[in-house]
What does this fold into?
Amino acid sequence: MSGHLGFSYIGLIFLLMLFIPNSIWTKKQPEGYAELIKNENKILLFFERTGQVLVTVCALIFSDYNPSEFSAWSAWLIASFALMLLYEAAWIRYFLKPSLKSFYGRFLFVPIPLASLPVFAFLLLGIYGKVVWLIISAVIIGIGHIGIHVQYLKVISKK
It folds into this structure.
């Protein structure tokens, strides 16, 4: 479960699915977001930033995510990709009506989907590729990214 060094086009596709909507979001942030992030937890932010770097590197430098043959194990990759597709759909919902509610609210059955879906997608991708480094990286980013969004959701719920 260590990983074979080499370029992963699957990792690149996942990262593009992650970065493109986030890039668009920087220009379409919901009203009230700037005020919300003023009291961001620095420890969770450290986990988030560290996890972002680790996930990005691990997704690209291990070739184990590139499918070679279809088997029952491929269900991990399919599930991972399905979560990324749900993530894209959650972004579409947000961009159709940008607000804190659509940014943090449930999407179908998923709480805080724009934080949780990609974390779990990368976790499943790490399981599929049997790359412990991506699994650990996904846990690290999950602690920070999901933790921060849970805090924001609590603030929004009080208003």
Notes: The chain has one domain: 9-158. Helices lie at 9-25, 33-36, 42-61, 74-96, 100-104, 113-129, 132-158. The chain has a mean pLDDT of 93.
